Amino acid sequence: MSILLQVDFDYSGPFGEEMAGMLTSLAESINHEPGMIWKIWTESEQDKLGGGIYLFEDKASANAYLAMHTARLKEMGIAEVRGKVFDVNSSLSIINQGPIEKLSIDKP
Amino acid sequence: MSILLQVDFDYSGPFGEEMAGMLTSLAESINHEPGMIWKIWTESEQDKLGGGIYLFEDKASANAYLAMHTARLKEMGIAEVRGKVFDVNSSLSIINQGPIEKLSIDKP
């Protein structure tokens, strides 16, 4: 059963491609975190927020990542990180095409 | 550019298959919401939370859905809904296999 980790925090930028350029190596390192299936990087310049939505293989991996990531963000100057670990309701998510299994991107 | 909507709220159940049985029709109706690409249904019996992570085609659709859904949850007795609309950082999400495009599930 997959586990969803939801993280957000107050963040004043940089956003978009400037952020992507700065954090490419960090993103690549996240692929090696135990149990990580995927991450969507979230940001809002309007609301001054950063964050991420992650799918993990199990709760222990999600909790361990959240503790590590919170400490890392604190070192980057972000004092308060809002992190929540959720179970996924698979039956309902499947009805709504929720990407909760290993997926491949359609190449049209 | 896809938009991510993050919703959670205090919720005391039912969870899991009991919730899925109650809300199958609601989930089916969500497939007809304008601009909705997918939803992952999130829940935590431990932390007494419900919620959802959605991908939308554009910000207007995400904002309209959040307003409608917040009103609907209020009718169901949930007074405070935490909803946040995010841009997706595509370059970083693609590095981490983030499902931000139209996807198909691998059938092994």
Walk me through the structure.
2 copies of one chain form a homodimer. Chain A has a 4-stranded antiparallel beta sheet, covered by helices on one side. With 108 residues, chain A is an alpha+beta fold. The first copy, chain A, has 3 helices and 5 strands. The first copy, chain A, has one domain: Alpha-Beta Plaits, CATH 3.30.70.100. Chain A has helices spanning 16-30, 59-75, 90-95, and strands at residues 3-10, 36-44, 49-56, 81-88, 103-105. In chain A, a hairpin with a 4-residue loop joins β2 (36-44) and β3. Chains A and B meet through β1, α1, β2, β3 and β4 of A and β1, α1, β2, β3 and β4 of B.
What is this structure's SSE topology?
Two copies of one chain form a homodimer.
Chain A: E1 3-10, H1 16-30, E2 36-44, E3 49-56, H2 59-75, E4 81-88, H3 90-95, E5 103-105
Antiparallel strand pairs in A: 1-3, 1-4, 2-3
